[in-house]
Amino acid sequence: MIPAPFEYVRAASVNEAIAALSADPDAKLLAGGHSLLPAMRLRVSRPSALVDIGRIEGLSTIRDDGDDIVVGALARHHDVANSELLQTSCPILAFAAAQIGDPAVRHVGTIGGSVAHGDPAGDMPAVLLALDATFVATGAAGTTRTIDAASFFTGLFETALAPTEVLTEIRVPKASGGWSFLKFNRRAQDWAMVGVSAVRADDVVRVALTNMGLTPLRAVAVEEALADGAGVADASVLADHGTAPPDDAFASPDYRRALVKVLTHRALEEALA
Ligand code: FAD
Fold this sequence. Notes:
This protein is α+β, with helices and mostly antiparallel strands and 273 residues long. It has twelve helices and 14 strands. The strands form four sheets. Strands 4-5-10-6-7 form a five-stranded antiparallel sheet. A four-stranded antiparallel sheet has the order 11-12-13-14, sandwiched between helices. Strands 1-3-2 form a three-stranded parallel sheet, with helices on one face. The longest helix has 20 residues, at 253-272. Bound molecules: flavin-adenine dinucleotide.
């Protein structure tokens, strides 16, 4: 289908983008366009204007910042996957980025767009939840605030970002412990039917689930069982606690509940090995 008519504005800076969003409450940011444009073609999304942030300088760098790595919101999935810094100091993020879509998608889609879109089937949100990442949002007059991953994803395609904020950075702690990212799909390059991300940091294990509810979810019951000394087999059977998996053409909720337990078992074995 053809999108509804819209204006197009190219922002040269974050401040320009915020000004354009503030001037028109129905405007939307455009980064890689690989989620927004398909939604517009289906007329699920009908913004009055697109504010293109794709060429703002300095928003796509990936840099070392002590205990954290700072990933610019405009870093493409390809850049995240191939960043030596991430491959060394936060390998789960680089590995997961390499599993997104196909090369054409990875060369255009951005990590910030993936996160801001708030799709529970997206790969990046659950990985960043498992990593306990922090999101930096820039608002009017250049003010910034940080939002932790646990409070960022508020509903289906909804996040804690205000309509006039731009997600500018994602801070991920360096992760030297074990990890696992498992994505189950019917064909290579498909979205996850279910995904599990597990990260071990010191004595803490965090597990996050893809496509098991309206938002990416932490598998809290699994994490608590492990903290109380349960083994992997006993903990992983709790993986569907607190979830509300979707029913779609690819899998029923019951199938997803069974699948998430199997994947969590495998992910924990890999992360704790
Ligand atoms: P856009 O489409 O430009 O924007 C998405 C939303 O985020 C919009 O609402 C926009 O206004 C908002 N936004 C963008 N940037 C910012 C920002 N910096 N601050 C605030 N708001 C912002 N994803 C997966 O996770 N796994 C897959 O397997 C997968 N397969 C795909 C296959 C295909 C064929 C396609 C087309 C997409 C696929 N994707 C997949 C989605 C892809 O990863 C998208 O690129 C990503 O979800 C959105 O990033 P984007 O830069 O394209 O964002």
